[in-house]
Design brief:
By secondary structure, the chain is mostly beta strands.
Length: about 140
Protein backbone atom coordinates (compact mmCIF):
# COMPACT_ATOMS: atom_id res chain seq x y z
CA UNK A 1 0.00 0.00 0.00
CA UNK A 2 1.15 3.51 -0.77
CA UNK A 3 -0.42 6.77 0.49
CA UNK A 4 -0.14 10.17 -1.12
CA UNK A 5 -1.51 13.39 0.29
CA UNK A 6 -0.76 16.90 -0.90
CA UNK A 7 -2.21 20.24 0.27
CA UNK A 8 -4.20 20.66 -2.97
CA UNK A 9 -6.32 17.53 -2.39
CA UNK A 10 -9.97 18.49 -1.91
CA UNK A 11 -12.85 16.10 -2.63
CA UNK A 12 -10.81 13.47 -4.49
CA UNK A 13 -13.09 11.35 -6.68
CA UNK A 14 -10.99 8.99 -8.81
CA UNK A 15 -7.44 7.80 -9.49
CA UNK A 16 -5.96 6.06 -12.54
CA UNK A 17 -2.49 4.49 -12.40
CA UNK A 18 -0.40 4.95 -15.56
CA UNK A 19 2.23 2.66 -17.06
CA UNK A 20 5.06 5.03 -16.11
CA UNK A 21 4.17 4.58 -12.40
CA UNK A 22 2.58 8.02 -12.17
CA UNK A 23 -1.11 8.49 -11.34
CA UNK A 24 -3.92 10.73 -12.54
CA UNK A 25 -6.07 12.11 -9.72
CA UNK A 26 -9.47 13.78 -10.12
CA UNK A 27 -9.43 16.66 -7.66
CA UNK A 28 -13.09 17.62 -7.82
CA UNK A 29 -12.88 20.36 -5.20
CA UNK A 30 -10.39 22.35 -7.29
CA UNK A 31 -11.97 21.44 -10.68
CA UNK A 32 -8.75 19.80 -11.85
CA UNK A 33 -6.90 16.62 -12.69
CA UNK A 34 -3.38 16.16 -11.34
CA UNK A 35 -0.68 13.85 -12.64
CA UNK A 36 1.55 12.84 -9.73
CA UNK A 37 4.58 10.72 -9.05
CA UNK A 38 4.17 8.25 -6.20
CA UNK A 39 6.26 10.56 -3.99
CA UNK A 40 3.54 13.23 -4.40
CA UNK A 41 5.46 15.50 -6.76
CA UNK A 42 3.25 17.13 -9.37
CA UNK A 43 4.01 16.40 -13.02
CA UNK A 44 1.01 18.16 -14.60
CA UNK A 45 -2.18 20.03 -13.73
CA UNK A 46 -5.26 20.32 -15.95
CA UNK A 47 -8.15 22.59 -15.07
CA UNK A 48 -11.17 20.76 -16.51
CA UNK A 49 -12.69 24.00 -17.78
CA UNK A 50 -9.57 24.85 -19.81
CA UNK A 51 -8.75 27.75 -17.50
CA UNK A 52 -5.69 28.65 -15.45
CA UNK A 53 -5.79 26.10 -12.57
CA UNK A 54 -5.09 28.86 -10.05
CA UNK A 55 -7.53 31.50 -11.36
CA UNK A 56 -10.08 30.62 -8.64
CA UNK A 57 -7.84 28.92 -6.08
CA UNK A 58 -4.71 29.77 -4.11
CA UNK A 59 -1.84 27.31 -4.74
CA UNK A 60 -0.43 28.13 -1.27
CA UNK A 61 -3.59 27.16 0.63
CA UNK A 62 -4.16 23.90 2.52
CA UNK A 63 -7.29 22.38 0.93
CA UNK A 64 -7.36 19.00 2.75
CA UNK A 65 -8.81 20.39 5.96
CA UNK A 66 -12.49 20.52 5.14
CA UNK A 67 -12.74 23.86 3.36
CA UNK A 68 -15.58 24.05 0.86
CA UNK A 69 -14.86 25.07 -2.71
CA UNK A 70 -18.49 24.82 -3.83
CA UNK A 71 -20.25 25.54 -6.02
CA UNK A 72 -18.43 23.48 -8.64
CA UNK A 73 -18.84 24.64 -12.23
CA UNK A 74 -17.85 21.29 -13.79
CA UNK A 75 -17.58 18.79 -10.89
CA UNK A 76 -15.06 16.44 -12.56
CA UNK A 77 -15.29 12.93 -11.21
CA UNK A 78 -14.27 9.95 -13.37
CA UNK A 79 -11.17 9.33 -15.48
CA UNK A 80 -10.84 6.85 -18.30
CA UNK A 81 -8.37 6.17 -21.09
CA UNK A 82 -9.68 6.06 -24.64
CA UNK A 83 -6.99 4.70 -26.97
CA UNK A 84 -4.45 5.79 -24.34
CA UNK A 85 -5.80 9.36 -24.18
CA UNK A 86 -7.08 10.47 -20.74
CA UNK A 87 -10.65 11.76 -20.53
CA UNK A 88 -12.49 13.08 -17.48
CA UNK A 89 -16.25 13.20 -16.97
CA UNK A 90 -17.80 16.50 -15.85
CA UNK A 91 -20.97 15.97 -13.82
CA UNK A 92 -22.44 19.46 -14.12
CA UNK A 93 -21.62 19.85 -17.83
CA UNK A 94 -22.93 16.37 -18.73
CA UNK A 95 -19.91 15.40 -20.79
CA UNK A 96 -16.38 14.02 -20.79
CA UNK A 97 -13.38 15.84 -22.25
CA UNK A 98 -9.85 14.93 -23.23
CA UNK A 99 -7.15 16.24 -20.92
CA UNK A 100 -4.93 16.72 -23.98
CA UNK A 101 -7.49 18.57 -26.13
CA UNK A 102 -10.72 19.86 -24.54
CA UNK A 103 -12.24 20.18 -28.03
CA UNK A 104 -12.37 16.36 -27.97
CA UNK A 105 -15.64 16.13 -26.07
CA UNK A 106 -18.12 13.31 -25.51
CA UNK A 107 -21.62 14.69 -25.00
CA UNK A 108 -23.55 12.68 -22.43
CA UNK A 109 -26.78 14.59 -23.11
CA UNK A 110 -29.30 14.86 -20.33
CA UNK A 111 -27.41 12.60 -17.89
CA UNK A 112 -25.15 13.89 -15.13
CA UNK A 113 -22.47 11.17 -15.09
CA UNK A 114 -20.86 10.54 -11.72
CA UNK A 115 -19.03 7.21 -11.62
CA UNK A 116 -17.74 4.75 -14.16
CA UNK A 117 -16.15 1.42 -14.94
CA UNK A 118 -13.02 1.15 -17.06
CA UNK A 119 -14.52 -1.23 -19.59
CA UNK A 120 -14.76 1.84 -21.78
CA UNK A 121 -18.50 2.04 -21.74
CA UNK A 122 -20.38 2.06 -18.45
CA UNK A 123 -21.13 4.79 -15.97
CA UNK A 124 -23.68 5.53 -13.28
CA UNK A 125 -25.67 8.73 -13.57
CA UNK A 126 -27.99 10.82 -11.49
CA UNK A 127 -30.77 10.05 -10.80
CA UNK A 128 -30.08 6.30 -10.43
CA UNK A 129 -29.50 5.30 -14.03
CA UNK A 130 -26.78 3.55 -15.99
CA UNK A 131 -25.46 5.16 -19.18
CA UNK A 132 -23.80 2.97 -21.82
CA UNK A 133 -21.54 4.69 -24.30
CA UNK A 134 -20.69 2.88 -27.50
CA UNK A 135 -17.78 3.65 -29.76
CA UNK A 136 -18.74 4.51 -33.33
CA UNK A 137 -16.27 5.28 -36.08
Amino acid sequence: MHRISIPWFNDIHHVVPLEDESILVVNTGLEMVLRLRLDGSVLAIWNVLGEDPWARFDPHKEYRLGCSTKPHVAHPNFLFLLDGEPFVSRFELRDAVSLHDARRRIDIGSERVHDGIVDGATSTSQPSTVTLLSRTR
